[in-house]
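Module 6 notes. Inverse folding takes a fixed backbone as the condition and produces residue identities as the prediction. Think of it as a translation problem where the source language is geometry and the target language is the twenty amino acids. Below is one complete input and output pair. Work through it position by position during the lab.
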C-alpha cells in the first residue's frame, strides 16, 4: 500500500482508540441474535452484509454474493479485513473514502450513547472486478450494537452494486439520521439531484404517471418527462425503479 494510504488509514483507526472496551462486559449472544436476520438480508436484498467487531478489530460476520465478481475468496477477506477492498479500490476513490470514514465515524463517536444507533454513513466507491473493469458499490455503515459503556461495538456494513455515474462523477457521501432523514457532516456538498427532481422521483416511486405528477405539481407533462430523463441520466439508471432504489440508498428519499 502507498505510504499516504497507510498514514491516513492509521489516523482513521486511531479514532476508535477513544473507545475503552471492557472485554468481560461484552455479551456475544448479542451478535448471535442478529445473524439469522443478516443472512436472510444478504439473500433477499442480494447485498453484501458484514459486521465489524470494533473490540477485536476484525469481521465478526460476512456474507457476500459479490466476491466472485471481484475474484476474491471469503477466507481471504475475513483475514485481511477492509484492507482487502482497498487493494481493489480505484486510486482516485481511496482518499475520499478514508476522509469519509474519518469524518463520519468521528461524528458518530461524539453522539450521546442513546443516539448513536440513529445515524448511518453512506458513500460510494469503485472496485476493480475480476474482468478488469471497475464496478461501483454503495456502502452503508450503521452501529448495530453498543457495549454497556455506550461504545460502538458492532458496526453493520451493507454493500450494493449501483449504476456507475462515470469517471468524473463526484463521490456521494452522507451521514443521515435514519429517524428524521436529516443529513449531517457532508450535507453541504450537494446532492446529485435537484430538490425538484427528488420531489418528482418521489411521486413517480408511488406509481404515479407523468400526467398525474404534472397535475400534482402544476407543471406540464413535458416538464415532468424532461426531469425524468435528467434523473435517469444523472443516476445512470436504466429505469425509474433503479433510480428510486439508488436515491433511497443515498438517503435522498
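Target side of the pair, the amino acids:
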Amino acid at each position: 500500500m502507498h505510504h499516504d494510504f497507510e498514514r491516513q488509514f492509521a489516523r482513521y483507526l486511531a479514532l476508535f482508540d477513544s473507545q475503552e472496551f471492557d472485554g468481560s462486559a461484552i455479551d456475544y449472544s448479542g451478535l448471535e441474535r442478529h445473524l439469522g436476520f443478516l443472512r436472510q438480508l444478504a439473500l433477499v436484498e442480494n447485498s453484501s452484509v458484514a459486521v465489524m467487531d470494533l473490540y477485536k478489530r476484525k469481521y465478526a460476520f460476512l456474507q457476500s454474493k459479490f466476491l466472485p465478481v471481484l475474484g476474491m475468496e471469503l477466507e481471504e477477506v475475513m483475514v485481511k479485513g477492509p484492507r482487502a477492498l482497498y487493494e481493489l479500490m480505484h486510486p482516485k476513490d481511496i482518499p475520499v473514502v478514508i476522509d469519509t470514514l474519518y469524518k463520519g465515524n468521528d461524528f458518530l463517536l461524539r453522539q450521546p450513547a442513546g443516539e448513536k444507533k440513529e445515524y448511518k454513513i453512506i458513500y460510494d466507491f469503485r472496485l476493480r472486478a475480476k474482468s478488469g473493469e471497475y464496478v461501483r458499490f454503495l456502502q452503508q455503515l450503521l452501529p448495530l450494537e453498543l457495549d454497556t459503556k455506550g461504545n460502538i461495538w458492532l458496526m453493520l456494513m451493507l454493500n450494493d452494486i449501483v449504476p456507475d455515474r462515470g469517471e468524473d462523477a463526484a463521490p456521494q457521501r452522507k451521514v443521515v439520521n435514519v429517524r428524521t432523514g436529516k443529513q449531517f457532516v457532508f450535507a453541504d456538498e450537494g446532492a446529485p439531484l435537484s430538490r425538484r427532481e427528488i420531489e418528482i422521483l418521489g411521486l413517480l416511486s408511488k406509481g404515479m404517471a407523468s400526467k398525474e405528477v404534472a397535475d400534482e405539481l402544476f407543471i406540464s407533462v413535458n416538464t415532468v418527462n424532461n426531469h425524468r430523463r435528467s434523473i435517469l441520466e444523472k443516476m445512470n439508471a436504466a429505469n425509474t425503479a433503479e433510480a428510486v432504489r439508488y436515491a433511497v440508498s443515498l438517503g435522498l428519499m
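Reference fact for the lab report: The chain has a mean pLDDT of 88.
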